[in-house]
Write a structure and sequence with these properties.
single chain; 478 residues; alpha/beta; FAD/NAD(P)-binding domain; Enolase-like, domain 1; 3 domains; five-stranded parallel sheet; 11 helices; 27 strands; 28% helix; 26% strand; disordered C terminus; binds flavin-adenine dinucleotide; monodehydroascorbate reductase (NADH)
Length: 478
């Protein structure tokens, strides 16, 4: 039993949706030659909505409203769209083995699906507490958040514990965004994480202090520098408390766990070269793996970043998933015309009424700038390495300001005086952006291709507002 396609996209998440749109735009296939295989039961959707609009108590985001590619202000790809485009959606189907030499995939029910060209878009999975030696995370009131199934479980748990207590394990963006959603659902939140401050992989202590103070004003309690060791459960198996390593016992009507992710590479272990540094499937600037008929995109791919002198990175960000997916399709259909990807890493988040963006790499010395105030916050930081800007963070910026910091990072702007950079703050980035405009001869308002990422960032931020416009509505109402 089997089926054969010319192009198979394995995985049905963000990058699968953007790859499908790119195939359709370029018209590089005939009806029935392209398929998406996904373990999920629904067509590709904008995953970031799950921790934002999806969790709102009223007017929450629901499918089909946030299928890809609305997150980039592009077409809404419903199942009908795929049908019209002649792209087969093979949903609710898990691939359990892959043979890249034979160019064949085997599904959980034993069907063989063969391809000429494969795009691996299997993303990542949430790390489970069991992987850290803690048992019992299958209880009905312990939630993870990676897919729509998890999000439904979380929504149900929140509904049954309004006015109660939640413990959030993990201080990364999933923990931070879920904590904000829980508060919005009138649930008291305690966040527990081992680091000294939240978002430890990105935030500086000063930036983290701002968000932690903001959350504290919203009623969130932080327990830092310790980890969960076990759960207390009632006779029905529901968690009633979490026990921490430092001996503390926290009452819990529900628990949300956001302790990181692992790339879904296992199907290809021993067959494709994996990046040793960050456990992704290693690809070149065309998103092509060590096997020429196989490409990898999104969270699962480790690709060279020109801006970081070709350093190979695996990113876990939606913009990277969208861009790498489109790039792979371009490389597959028009290899001679497709240059190596030139990507400026970009990540954003929205919590409560706050919204930030980050570009580049957070290495080097840090200089903060701006107003760290509760009313109209507008602050940020530059990272400077060897006299050049390597990364920039901004909370509360305007479209032009986000564009400006992205330009400063993309140009690796030269810094001669750190104190002066701190004084200038955003003005420094705006000057860089003006220099860029005069060098490229573009008038204000026109975009050099160079600032594409910034534009995408703004579009993404706007579209998160659109995808998760529910937040906006909520903000205006409350
Ligand atoms: C709740 C949440 C909020 C987020 N918010 C933000 C944000 O604010 N900003 C940001 O930049 N990024 C955010 N992200 C990250 C962003 O969503 C990811 O970077 C993006 O989804 C990666 O896309 P992908 O296609 O690589 O993987 P995914 O979107 O995870 O898709 C992978 C797909 O592969 C399928 N799959 C895996 N293995 C198999 C198999 N063996 N057989 C069949 N199918 C398989 C999965 O079921 C899934 O459909 C968020 C992520 C989550 C989970």
């Amino acid at each position: 039993m089997g089926r054969a396609f010319v192009y198979v996209i394995l995985g049905g998440g963000v990058s699968a949706g953007y790859a499908a749109l790119e195939f359709a735009r370029r018209g590089g296939y005939s009806r029935g030659e392209l398929c998406i295989i996904s373990e999920e039961a629904v067509a590709p959707y904008e995953r970031p909505a799950l921790s934002k609009g999806y969790l709102l108590p009223e007017g929450a985001a629901r499918l089909p409203g946030f299928h890809t590619c609305v997150g980039a202000n592009d077409e809404l790809l419903t199942p009908k769209w795929y049908k019209e485009q002649g792209i087969e959606l093979i949903l609710g189907t898990k691939i359990i083995s892959a043979d890249v030499r034979r160019k064949a995939l085997v599904t959980a029910v034993g069907e063989t699906i063969s391809y000429k060209t494969l795009i691996i878009a299997t993303g990542a999975r949430a790390l489970k507490l069991e992987e850290f030696g803690i048992q019992g995370s299958d209880a009905e009131n312990i939630c993870y958040l990676r897919n729509i199934h998890d999000a439904d479980k979380l929504v149900n748990a929140m509904k049954s514990c309004s006015g109660g207590n939640a413990v959030v394990i993990g201080g990364g963006y999933i923990g931070m965004e879920c904590a904000a959603a829980l508060v919005t659902n009138k649930i008291r939140v305690t966040m527990v994480f081992p680091e000294k401050h939240c978002m430890a992989r990105l935030f500086t202590p000063r930036i983290a202090e701002y968000y932690e103070n903001y959350y504290t004003l919203k009623g969130v309690t932080f327990v830092k520098g310790t980890v969960l060791t076990s759960f207390e459960k009632d006779a029905t198996g529901k968690v009633t408390a979490v026990i921490l390593k430092d001996g503390k016992r926290l009452r819990a009507d529900m628990v949300v766990v956001g302790i990181g992710i692992r790339a879904n590479t296992s199907l290809f272990e021993g067959q494709l070269v994996v990046s040793m540094v960050n456990d992704g499937i290693k690809v070149n600037g065309q998103m092509q793996t060590s096997e020429s008929s196989v490409y990898a995109v999104g969270d699962v791919a480790a690709f060279p970043i020109k801006l970081f002198d070709g350093d190979v990175r695996r990113l876990e960000h939606v913009d990277s998933a969208r861009r790498t997916a489109r790039h792979a399709v371009s490389a597959i259909l028009e290899p001679a015309k497709t240059r190596d990807i030139n990507y400026l890493p970009f990540f954003y988040s929205r919590v409560f009424t706050l919204s930030w963006q980050f570009y580049g790499d957070n290495v080097g010395e840090v200089v903060h700038f701006g107003e760290f105030t509760n009313s109209s916050p507008r602050f940020g930081a530059y990272w400077v390495n060897k006299g050049r800007i390597t990364g920039a963070f901004l909370e509360g910026g305007s479209r032009e300001e986000y564009e400006a910091i992205s330009v400063a990072v993309g140009r690796k702007a030269k810094v001669t005086d750190m104190a002066e950079l701190g004084k200038q703050g955003l003005a420094f980035a705006i000057q860089e952006s003006q220099k860029q405009m005069s060098e490229t001869g573009l008038a204000i308002g026109e975009k050099p291709t160079y600032v594409w990422h910034a534009t995408a960032a703004v579009v993404a931020a706007v579209s998160i507002a659109a995808v998760g416009y529910w937040y906006g509505r909520k903000r205006r109402r409350w």
